[in-house]
Design a protein that fits this description.
Number of helices: 4
Largest sheet: 2 strands, antiparallel
Order of helices and strands: HEEHHH
Radius of gyration: 16 Å
Distance between the termini: 18 Å
Shape: globular
Structural class: mainly alpha
Oligomer: single chain
Amino acid sequence: MRRKRPLRLLVLGLLSVAVLIYLVLNFPPTYGFMISDFRFQILPIVLVLVFLFIFSLVAFLLNNKRRGFLVAVFILGYFILKLINLTHPFFIILLLILLAMLELLFAKRK
């Protein structure tokens, strides 16, 4: 029997992409805001929103949260590698191999 696709993942994805678009269009990448005595940069918030969008979209399309999580971690890992200037293809291949091994490990346990 086929499982229904959870609609809440699609709603989460659309909501996160709407907030992401708002942040990208209205704030510069170096923008920081204050909450109490703490100063936060906007970049980690954008990365979390990108992760949520990719996770929810892939999990909705594939109907599998584990694969959605792994694809989102791969893309976010690629963005973080680009951010710290590790652009050699070897690093991307290592990240892909690591996530493929995790997929095989979790698929084996099931």
